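Posting here for the record, re: BIS(adenosine)-5'-pentaphosphate.
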Amino acid sequence: MRLVFLGAPGAGKGTQAQRLAAQEQIPHISTGEILRESVTRGTPLGLQAKGYMDSGKLVPDEVVIGLVREKLTSPECARGYILDGFPRTVAQAEALDRILTETGSPGLDHVISFDVPQEEIVRRLSGRRSCSRCQTVYHIEHDPPKHEGVCDKCGGRLVQRADDKPETVLARLRVFDQQTRPLVEYYQKRGLLQRVDATGSIDQVYARLLAVVHATRMA
Ligand code: AP5
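Prediction output follows.
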C-alpha cells in the first residue's frame, strides 16, 4: 500500500496515518515530524529548517525532496508506506513521480485528501498537544491522554507545537491554499485522488478512510 495523505494543517492526517500505518505495519513518513526531530536535535537540517517552520513557511523543496528520496529507497519501505505532508508543492509532486519511476515502483495507490472546514481546523490545532519524546499526538478534548500532560505511550511530557500559535496557524493555512491545494487537481487529473470527509470523530474518519482503502483492495 503506497499512499499520500493530503490536507490542510490540522485536518487529521497525522492522527489517521499513525493508526493506519500501525494496522498495516508499514512506515508512516511524516516530513513535519522528521523536520521537528532535526530541529530538537540541532542537526544541520534542523538549523536550516527552523526559521521556515517557525514562521509557517515551507522548507525549500530540494531539502525535503532529498529527505523523502532517502526514506523511499530504504528497505523498510519495500512493503509500502504512508507519506504524510509530502508532497506539498507541484515541484515536490513531480519529484516524487521521478523517484517512483527511478526506483521501478508500481506507483502510488491513492492520494487521500482529508477535507475539513477552517473553523474546525483552528479548534483542532489550538487543542493539540504532542509528546516531546515520541511525538504521539493528542487533543485536550477529543483525544486526551489518561493523565493530563503525560504521554500514554512513553511517559514523555506533552507540549504545544511552536507553530500552533494562532498567527502561525493563519500563515500555514495561507501557504496551504497557495502552494498545496493545487495538488488536488494534479492528482485528480492522474486518477489517484480520493476525498475523505474528515469531519466528525477520529473513529468516524478512520472508518471512512478504511472504506476507501478496502474498496480498492476488493476491486
Ligand atoms: P506538518 O507537521 O506536516 O504540519 P501540517 O501539514 O501543518 O499538519 P499538522 O501536523 O499540523 O496536522 P495534521 O493534519 O497531521 O493533524 P493532526 O493529526 O495532528 O509540517 C509542519 C511544518 O514542517 C510545515 O509548516 C513546514 O514548515 C514543514 N514541512 C513539513 N513538510 C514539508 C514539505 N513537504 N515541504 C516543505 N516544508 C514542509 O490533528 C490535529 C489535532 O486534531 C490533534 O490534536 C488531533 O488529536 C486532533 N484531531 C485529529 N482528528 C480529529 C477528529 N476527527 N476530531 C477531533 N480532533 C481530531
